[in-house]
């Protein structure tokens, strides 16, 4: 006999661990594709041989991002059709299909093709991947504010999204080095293409799980009538720039990704040429994720007690201290140096974990802030612009880092056999990139983002939403888990 589903006072299925796991699966699906971006620079510089051409092309394709993200976000906001399930879930379903092959399009192995052909392969492949990623990712981010209006529930969703993101990054991080590198720390480019196909298919399965287990509880039904004002993209973009919490959260996210994505190529070269063991890099970075996993179950109660802005700012300070320590401490090219590196990354990861577990809930609050100040609710556009700047950092970070690497002597054709002085420079470059990243996070969260605990309570009261935080564990109950099956 099927278990009876418990309903809330509005007739929706009660919020539970089922919602958290479903939302986590969505970011897992996104990151099974997105995590490959960390391999992109190594693939195109060491295997395809583009080097500085890759940096130039990566900047060029960000122009597509400038058009792609806000355009798709505005299309979703302006879409007034009634869908059987939900328009956001419908767009996610379409994007998840395209991502099966979209990621692999960025890794078509053709090292002997002419330069012009390689450039076309990269630009076309990136545009295909980016379009489908945006179609899935923009509405996915907007869903957080629709699944529940409860601040504590949103904190839970944000925390579990971080879990999905972590798992989605950890799996490729740990497994890929053993698959795509040989015993001499050299990349086997052909294997990357097939790995991307496999990850795209697994991501599709994760998206389907999310779609089937997501309950929309915030009623924002569109009223179809000819008198409704026409959607104005430029006005929505102007509102975003006036949305101080959105700007602060976006700058912090850009800082985080400048460190994570910008340093990714240098980190790979660090383990290839400085520590001389690229296969262990994934395991080392996995250990750095431990603090995030430890903090995630505590996020809800910590938000209740201290507030999201306050917690995130504290996390940014942790990251800044750890990153600066990486510059000062003697990280030598031996086991002792790896231990020091891991310890610094553990502390840095704790700071990132504190911020990342509440970052998406902060954007959900920023969407509410836009409604509070302008009277208009523009989830798609606000999130799309936030996503655009994140992706800008994800693209410009690696491009600028690669330019700096080349100026420091990095030669892509040498693969994992960089000169000792070049390898040493990579060690300091990694530390510097992490430090700049943490500083930007602190500025965005501590100085710009203005929704502290008191202001957030006032905003929720004015919008007629729940002010009281309900102290519950993120873990849920066995009954909640049984609801999944």
Give an overview of the whole structure.
It is built from 19 helices and no strands. It has 485 residues and is an all-alpha fold. The protein has a single domain, classed as Growth Hormone, Chain: A, CATH 1.20.1250. The relative contact order is 0.17.
What count of helical segments does DSSP give? 19
CATH architecture: Up-down Bundle
Q: Give the CATH topology.
A: Growth Hormone, Chain: A
CATH superfamily: MFS general substrate transporter like domains
Q: Tally the beta strands.
A: 0
Concise synopsis of the structure shown:
The chain is mostly helical and 485 residues long. The protein has helices spanning 17-34, 37-47, 52-78, 87-102, 115-147, 151-180, 189-212, 233-242, 244-260, 264-274, 281-288, 290-295, 299-306, 308-328, 335-374, 379-407, 420-448, 453-462, 478-482.
Helix and strand arrangement:
Layout: H1 17-34, H2 37-47, H3 52-78, H4 87-102, H5 115-147, H6 151-180, H7 189-212, H8 233-242, H9 244-260, H10 264-274, H11 281-288, H12 290-295, H13 299-306, H14 308-328, H15 335-374, H16 379-407, H17 420-448, H18 453-462, H19 478-482
Helix pairs in contact: 1-5, 1-6, 1-7, 3-5, 3-16, 4-5, 4-7, 5-15, 5-16, 6-7, 6-11, 6-13, 6-15, 9-15, 9-16, 9-17, 10-17, 11-15, 13-14, 14-15, 14-17, 15-16, 15-18
List keywords for this structure.
485 residues, mainly alpha, Growth Hormone, Chain: A, 19 helices, 73% helix, 0% strand, disordered C terminus
